[in-house]
TrEMBL record:
Keywords: FAD, Flavoprotein, NADP, Oxidoreductase. This is Ferredoxin--NADP reductase. FAD binds at T16, D35, Q43, Y48, A88, F121, D282, T323. InterPro entries: FAD/NAD-bd_sf, FAD/NAD-binding_dom, Fd--NADP_Rdtase_type_2, Ferredoxin-NADP_redctase_2. Binds 1 FAD per subunit. The keyword Oxidoreductase applies. Its EC number is 1.18.1.2. It comes from the Bacteria. Residues 7-296 form the FAD/NAD(P)-binding domain. Homodimer. It is an enzyme of class 1 (oxidoreductase). The lineage of its organism: Bacteria, Bacillati, Bacillota, Bacilli, Bacillales. Its cofactor is FAD. Belongs to the ferredoxin--NADP reductase type 2 family. It comes from Sporosarcina quadrami.
Amino acid sequence: MNNEIVDITIIGGGPTGLFASFYAGMREMSVKIIDSLPQLGGQLIELYPDKYIYDVGGFPKILAKDLVANLVTQAHYAKPEILLGETAMSVTRDGDHFILKTDKGTHLTRTILLTAGIGAFQPRKIGLPEETHFEGKTLHYGIKDLNLFKDKNVLVCGGGDSAVDWAMMLEDIAANVSLVHRRERFTAHETSVNQLMSSKVNVYTSRGIKTILGEDGAVREVIITEKDGTEETIAIDHLIVNYGNISSLGAIKDWGLEMDRNSILVNSRMETNIEGIYAAGDVTNYDGKVKLIAVGLGEAPIAVNHAKAHIDPKARLQPLHSTSVFN
Ligand SMILES: Cc1cc2nc3c(=O)[nH]c(=O)nc-3n(C[C@H](O)[C@H](O)[C@H](O)COP(=O)(O)OP(=O)(O)OC[C@H]3O[C@@H](n4cnc5c(N)ncnc54)[C@H](O)[C@@H]3O)c2cc1C
């Protein structure tokens, strides 16, 4: 056990947690970041490193991995202790600090900031017996490197934002892109759907994937079916499935936090119902909540400033401008 008590332990090293680290450094707090994944960046690195993001202030267009690289650089300002591949399990209070237990050890901390996003997550599988032959080779549940699909025939499955975004990003990279969605209507943003419909992508709605055919991990073709049983065969080299994620906050659900399904309820100070434990980003819920990177980046400073004032009631809640720290 590392007996040093840090000011703030950030659970979750996604964009919200990373920006919180920077901010806590600016408030001269000692910081520890814990994440169960082997790398920082949360959903952006795990699910869509090569996707462009257009809705973060100051960046008209930025790749998810580049945004994370910037956030990691910024996070290091706090000189945080970073523990990867480690999952937060339980918490108890001991006087003026918490004893936080993970699957790897015990940590002492004055405050905790939960930026655990959707929790530990894994993609929802396609659900066909042959899927294991192709997984990680030509059947993908996320895109780590767009170059893999250069000049290939690609089929994207799903009707949400991820599926539509991927199809559109691959349009000019792949030889041919098809998109299969089991429903008639898409749940993706309507602007994206309009762009999709006027793109070169072959769109098949109200159809499901019946069989994947191929050998030695290489997909050759898929058979898709309509509700009336009509079948069609599409020749492909890669299949990208976007059926969402199965996620769970796991042990955090047993901490006694007020929850709304898989989200933690917070007030306008990003305080949870447990004094000294804050939450920000996708993991939170409150009236009017919107789950976006930009929102998490705004909630992080709110949480950190209140955590600072909690530890040191004489500290200013409203910080000085960042220029006064860096000049
Ligand atoms: C395909 C896709 C495209 C998207 N595109 C956009 C977009 O264009 N613009 C936009 O604003 N948003 C987009 N989003 C949503 C965006 O990714 C999220 O809003 C954002 O990642 C939330 O950041 P976060 O830091 O709050 O949580 P996350 O990114 O989910 O990070 C949480 C971290 O906490 C860790 N963690 C969880 N539980 C524990 C635990 N018990 N112990 C230790 N670590 C734990 C996880 O491993 C994870 O690394 C997209 C999402 C997807 C899936």
